[in-house]
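Can anyone check this?
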Amino acid sequence: MNKGVLYAIGAYLLWGFFPIFWKIIKFVSPYEILCHRIIWSFVFLSIILASKKNWKWLKEVFTHKKTLIIFTISSLLLAINWLLFIWAVNSGYVIEASLGYFINPLFSVFLGVVFLKERPRIWQWIAFGIAGIGVLYLTFVHGSLPWIGLSLTFTFGIYGFLRKTDPLNSTEGLTMNTMMLFIPAIIFLLFREFSGVGSFGHIGLKFNFMLILAGVVTSLPLLFFASAAKRIALSSLGILQYIVPILQFCVGYFLYKESLDPDKLIGFIFVWIALMIYAAESIIEKRKIQFNNTVSK
C-alpha cells in the first residue's frame, strides 16, 4: 500500500478515536484540558521544528499584518472548536459531534462558492440540498437545532479556509496557532491553580501524564496528515477523511451507548446520502479529468 495512504489512514484513525482519549480525563474541566492541549502541542511542535532548525517562517508572519490577523482569527476559531469538541465528548454528545465532521466537506465547498466564486456542479448542488434537508429535519421534526455539530462545522470549516490563505504548512501553522494561544492558556491554568481548583499535579501521575500527552495526541495526526498530503492526491485525502466521523459515530453509538432515536437517525441518513452523492460525484469527475488528459496526450 502507498506510504501516503498509510499516513492518511493513521491520521484519520487517531482523529476518529479522539473521543476515547478525552473521555478518560473527563473529570478535568474542559477549559483546563483545552489549555493543556494548547500548551503541550506548542511544546511538542517546537521541539520538532527546533530539531530541524526551522524557524525562518516566524519573521514572515510577524512582518505581514494581514497574515498576523489571519492567524489571530484562526487561532480563536481553533480554540473554540477544540473546546466545544472536548465538552461535547465529555458531556455525552459524541454522535452529535460526529455530525459536524460529516457536514464539514460540504461546508468547505460552500465557502468556496461564497468567497472564491467557485461554481458547484449540479450533483454538488443536489448534495447541498439533501444535507440541508437533513439539518432542517433535525431542527423541526426532531425538535432541536443540531447546534453542536453545526458549530463544529462552522469553526473548523472557516479555520481551514483561513489556513488555506496563509503561507505556512500545516505543522508551522499549528505551531503558530498554539503559540498565539500559549500565554492565555498559561495564565488561565495559573489562575485555576492559585484559586485552589487546578487539576494538574493533583490528579495522580497517570492523569497528569495524559494531560501532557494531549499535546502529542493533537500534533501526531497532523504530522501524519502533512506527510500524506505530500504523497497522495488531495482528492484521495478527501475521500479518506470520512473515516473520522464514521469512527466517531461508532464510538458514540457502540462504545458509549449514546441514544439515537428514529427521528435523529433519519436526519443523519439525509446527511449520509448527501455525502455519498458528493463523494461519488468527486470520484467520477476526477476520472473524467484523468481520461480527458490521457486522450489529449
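Reply from J.R.: I decoded it. The chain has a mean pLDDT of 90.
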